[in-house]
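Technical annex, item 7. During the second reporting period the consortium partners agreed on a shared format for inverse folding records so that results from different sites could be compared directly. Each record opens with the tokenized structure and is followed by the designed sequence. A conforming record, contributed by the partner at site C, is shown below for reference.
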């Protein structure tokens, strides 16, 4: 899948920033590709880049309209269809990370065929995966796990990839969500894989490697989330993780989209070790990553110090304070790398 850049980011009329996390992720890690944003009345998200009309975007060289949103069920709202058709008519390709395939919507399919434009469904793949085998494979793997969904698992592994490479380590980000695929240009949206093949898909995107190579695997959901635990467990088993980092958002009391209370970090550590040991008995935690965006700096640092002391693990906000402590722990735990 070759998606033409640069992008015009379509945010629709999403109700909050989390609903536009795909767009934010692309903008944060590939800002040079994001020329402008297109928003409808009532949109509560703002990437901090210029709002553009279609003619303005084309004049700036945009080649693809990226639907940078997520929602329950991955559906495309009916009132967005005319906006997407207009973009196709103007000469843009369209890329989407939603569950619904663009080509299944007649108006979009007809416009793309007539205008000879490309439709990219990043969440879907033509590749067929085997079932997972759980057989030990060479190389090292790290997985991010969460107390909830949308807590920073992708940002943590991307920050770790950058930090580990700066230290001379051989490390690659492995995308398992639509935003990660947009950012890396490869990977698979694991939540769209048929359940029996989730662990096999993860084994496929993190195959055998050199003994000192690290695959940094993007986690999804949470083992404690009633909606997404199945995906999280398949990821854990397929990753055969040597190490994991727990990701957490400290201001939540219930899990996103449901009424269940947030698990503790200790509960997540214990359950990850218990379940992950099926495919790697040596699995171990190497740190805690906390999204402290809602906290003042002093409050954030105090919380991180408390968590580090309570769990005897380095704790940081990877975006705000970097990942040096996490990398130090990885090197200490796996000196052969």
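Designed sequence (site C submission):
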């Amino acid at each position: 899948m070759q998606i033409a850049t640069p992008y015009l980011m379509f945010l629709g009329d999403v109700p909050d920033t989390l609903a536009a996390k795909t767009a934010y992720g692309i903008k944060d890690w590939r800002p040079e590709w994001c020329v402008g944003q297109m928003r409808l009345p009532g949109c509560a998200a703002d990437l901090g880049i210029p709002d553009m009309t279609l003619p303005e975007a084309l004049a700036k060289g945009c080649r693809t309209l990226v639907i940078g949103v997520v929602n329950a069920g991955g559906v495309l709202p009916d009132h967005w269809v005319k906006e997407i058709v207009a973009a196709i008519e103007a000469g843009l390709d369209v890329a989407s990370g939603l569950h619904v395939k663009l080509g299944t919507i007649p108006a979009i399919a007809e416009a793309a065929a007539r205008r000879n434009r490309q439709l990219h469904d990043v969440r879907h793949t033509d590749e067929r995966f085997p079932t997972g085998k759980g057989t030990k494979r060479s190389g090292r793997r790290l997985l991010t796990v969460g107390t909830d969904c949308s807590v920073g698992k992708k940002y943590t592994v991307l920050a770790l990839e950058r930090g580990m490479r700066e230290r001379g380590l051989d490390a690659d980000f492995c995308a398992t969500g639509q935003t990660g695929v947009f950012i890396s240009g490869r990977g698979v949206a694991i939540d769209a894989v048929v359940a029996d093949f989730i662990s096999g898909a993860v084994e496929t995107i993190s195959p055998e490697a050199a003994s000192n190579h690290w695959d940094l695997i993007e986690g999804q959901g949470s083992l404690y989330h009633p909606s997404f635990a199945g995906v999280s467990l398949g990821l854990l088993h397929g990753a055969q993780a040597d190490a994991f980092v727990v990701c957490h958002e400290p201001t939540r009391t219930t899990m996103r989209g449901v009424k269940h209370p947030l698990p503790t970090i200790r509960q997540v550590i214990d359950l990850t070790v218990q379940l992950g040991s099926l495919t790697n008995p040596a699995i171990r935690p190497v740190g805690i990553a906390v999204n402290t965006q809602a906290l003042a700096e002093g409050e954030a640092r105090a919380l991180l110090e408390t968590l580090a002391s309570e769990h005897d693990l380095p704790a940081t906000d990877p975006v705000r304070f970097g990942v040096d402590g996490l990398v130090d722990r990885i090197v200490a735990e796996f000196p052969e790398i």
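The first strand starts at residue 7 and ends at 12. Residues 61 and 169 are 37 Å apart (CA to CA). All partners now use this format for quarterly exchanges.
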